[in-house]
Amino acid sequence: MTGHATTRPATMDREEATRLYLAIARLSRWMRRQGASQRGDLGHGGMSALATLTHAGPMRLGDLANREQVAPPTLSRVVATLESAGYAVRTSDPADRRASIVAATEEGQQIARGLRSLRTEALRSRVERLTPEQHDALVAALPALEALVGDDAA
Length: 154
Description:
This protein has a single domain, classed as Orthogonal Bundle (Arc Repressor Mutant, subunit A). Helix content is about 65%, strand content about 10%. It has helices spanning about 15-35, 35-40, 45-55, 60-70, 70-85, 105-125, 130-150; strands spanning about 60, 90-95, 95-105.
């Protein structure tokens, strides 16, 4: 016997999974509503793509579609809306002229950062209503939540 504890995959029963799902879904809807007036006609998809470009930098249209988990034609329409608003630019990929590189403009980056800041402050204000124990539990859960989203954290 080596004395090492064996590890097993974490398990969650159906009720716990349902509670987690509902809490995350409600929180996500609440977060999307914060700053909705600043989004204008861009909608959630446009702001999400703009936030990804601001955080991750310029990328191929196909890579952005993968990150946003939408079909390339759908994302192409979203990017066209961002372009017409002056928030993104599309250029040819120098390595492959058939592909496009999309980048957030300076104005687009300011819009994305402003919305993120507004939402962060709204969330911080809401978290301040928690008891110290709830706050500590939420902070302790952050690594697990970050592990759940992996590279999607942008």
